[in-house]
Design a protein that fits this description.
The chain is α/β, with parallel strands linked by helices and 476 residues long. Helices cover 50% and strands 12% of the residues.
């Protein structure tokens, strides 16, 4: 083992410092000392406090940038990427290794949607199976926008990037959509794999605009591979995105639940957002009828806006225990159905606003005791029968095999395409937070120069970063 790699391994046991980087740089023969410019201290304090903060409502950087305009955004990109101390914050926060190859999982949830957390756990378990000798780096979706240029500096060509799966590809969840667009634009020398998504762009003027924006950006990167979560999404993706490579069910189905719990009562898990089809009157009627069969308990898989990282695993396991302790589950949530299936609990599944619950039910209906209903009024015809069904132990073998074989196939067949651009004016104008008065900030000539300057600053920062030089030395 060369002395540089050995010293990195020793130092990475604790948080890296600027002095550590300079020591490593001196060990790396042939690498000149970087000329790091000083930056405004107040800006660095602001950015650093955001990265280490546990209160993510303190600062909405994108909204802040939108108010300040394009010139400020240019300065943000320059100052973030030029400041080695900020780069170190990112390295230490996300435990990015300088000497081992990293595998990145981008867009994971900080919020307390336990369905999305289940997707994360399924994805992370697979990455540990497939890459036992590599360092897995999780990048939270709500932090990606302020670390994306640092990641551009640190991520080596050849390292694999995975994107969080789920049901947020479309025009309804534009924060998540913007992450996919940014990854496609910035990481042009990396294999990118989007874990399975349910896709839904509304047939409206805005839905068509957002589809065209995503299609243009993602299709420009031939290294970008998308998996669908259901047949409807697969057909749509195949028609619109050239990187569509297959279909897999929700990755949460690869999980196992082995506890035996005493079971009693009926657990009702209903949506309370724009995706529900059930009215308050229908909900009350369902609850009133079910109360004639057994005791009712209401729950949800969405617990709030923010889930502290140190509580994530305990909260998630507690929710699975809750589903596994019921005699029957009634739900219109996709992951309400999946939690019931994993825990072996009989389940009545109600439709939601799009196809995702129905299509997933069709995929797994033979593997658990469940009944899908398009209309909530039908519940009285099946409730007693489903309630008396036996529990069925969940077998995840088929799903684990399908996932591992599919991801391995994508990696084995991957060919690097380098004819991909980094950033352009059309993309800047189509970011989801949009500058409404784009032309009020700059003249056309200044806009063109600004774009060139931004590209130049990012590339220059990549070439001058101490951390990037050290990684380059090891991965030559």
């Amino acid at each position: 083992m060369n002395p540089l790699k050995k010293r990195i391994i020793d130092l990475e046991k604790n948080e890296l410092t600027r002095d550590d980087l300079e020591e490593l740089l001196n060990l790396a023969e042939g690498i000149d000392e970087a000329d790091i410019e000083d930056v405004d201290k107040s800006f660095i304090e602001l950015m650093n406090s955001y990265v280490v903060s546990q209160d993510y409502k303190k600062m909405d950087l994108q909204a802040f940038v939108a108010r300040k305009g394009l010139k400020f955004y240019k300065n943000v990109a320059n100052e973030i990427t030029r400041n080695e101390d900020y780069i170190l914050k990112v390295i230490n926060k996300y435990r990015i290794s300088l000497c081992k190859e990293n595998v990145y999982l981008i867009g994971t949830p900080h919020y307390a949607n336990l369905g999305d957390q289940a997707i994360y756990y399924g994805e992370h378990a697979q990455l540990e199976r497939l890459f036992p000798d590599k360092n897995i780096v999780e990048i939270f979706g709500d932090e990606f926008s302020i670390v994306k240029y640092v990641l551009y500096i640190l991520i080596q060509s050849g390292e694999i990037i995975f994107l969080q799966g789920g049901g947020n590809m479309g025009d309804r969840y534009l924060d998540e959509e913007s992450i996919r667009r940014d990854v496609a634009k910035l990481f042009t020398q990396n294999l990118i794999i989007s874990y399975p998504q349910t896709v839904y762009y509304e047939n409206s003027s805005n839905g068509k605009i957002q589809l065209n924006r995503s299609r243009r950006v993602i299709n420009a990167n031939k290294n970008y591979h998308i998996l669908a979560r259901d047949k409807v999404s697969y057909d749509f993706l195949k028609e619109n995105f050239i990187g569509t490579v297959g279909m897999l069910p929700d990755v949460a189905l690869t999980m196992k639940y082995d506890k035996d719990n005493d079971r009693n009562g009926i657990l009702c898990c209903f949506r309370n957002d724009s995706e529900t089809k059930i009215t308050n009157e229908q909900r009350n009627t369902i609850l009133e009828y079910l109360s004639t069969i057994d005791t009712i308990k209401e729950t949800d898989t969405v617990l709030g806006e923010y889930l502290p990282l140190e509580q994530r695993e305990a909260v998630f396991k507690s929710k699975l225990d809750e589903f596994a302790s019921a005699k029957m589950v009634v739900t219109d949530r996709l992951h309400g159905m999946i939690f019931a299936a994993i825990s072996g609990t009989p389940c009545i599944v109600l439709s939601n606003y799009n196809h995702k619950v129905r299509t997933m039910y069709e995929l797994i209906k033979d593997k658990f005791n469940g009944e899908f209903l398009e209309e909530p009024e039908e519940i009285q015809t099946v409730a007693t029968r489903v309630y008396n069904c036996p529990t069925v132990k969940w077998d995840n073998t088929e799903f684990v095999k399908a996932y591992d074989e599919t991801i391995k196939r994508i990696i084995d067949n991957y060919k690097v395409y380098s004819d991909v651009y980094l950033i352009d004016e059309e993309y800047l104008m189509s970011e989801h937070w949009e500058f409404r008065s784009f032309y009020d900030y700059e003249t056309r000539i200044e806009q063109d120069q600004w774009i060139k300057d931004l590209n130049s600053a990012i590339e220059e920062s990549r070439n001058t970063s101490l951390a990037h030089k050290i990684r380059n030395r090891l991965f030559k």
